[in-house]
Amino acid sequence: MKGRNKPLVGITGIIGSGKSAAARYFAELGAAVFDADCAAREVTEKPEVLEEIRQKLGSHLLTPDGKLDRSRTAEEVFSSSEKLAILNRIIHPRVRERMWDFVQANSLKPDIPMIVLDVPLIYETDLHRYLDFVVVVAAPEEECVRRTMQRSRLSREEVLRRMHHQLPLNEKIRRADFVLDNSASLEHLKKQVERVFRDILARWREG
Prior knowledge:
Layout: E1 8-12, H1 19-28, E2 32-35, H2 36-43, H3 47-57, H4 70-77, H5 81-107, E3 115-118, E4 133-138, H6 141-152, H7 156-164, H8 169-175, E5 178-181, H9 186-206
Helix pairs in contact: 1-9, 2-5, 3-5
């Protein structure tokens, strides 16, 4: 499979589905986990990235001390597909570079059983073509909206606007190798992760 010595696994889902919780459980089992959202935040702290955002999207998206105004930027780009595409062209290549560096570094570590990429837009960016397995974390849309509103203080309309820019959950489920049901408790999710973790390693060994 792909010529690697350990499986490369992607975790995805719609906003609020609980993919970060699932990724955390994979990490507890020994997987090396790359958090794309965290990498994107780090990328947007770089002076050269902030300058490119200023030039292409406007200085009004920066705070007076030159940092990215994340709330204002999100509000603007999720209201405009064109602006979102511009921002993605600035950020995504840099996140991808960090991601592949992470994969390469952890591929050499014998004590790591698998590498997991926690990425919201696996299918939307064709990343799935490079993965051995994709795990989708699923929950009812209304539950995902409620969770997102609760943790981020976004309005219902703002959450739905962000969801609109992602592939529908039923399509992600259709394409996935494994689906985790996160409509119940976190303990229920953890048990599913443990099962999928074992299944991935078994399928990898069978190759």
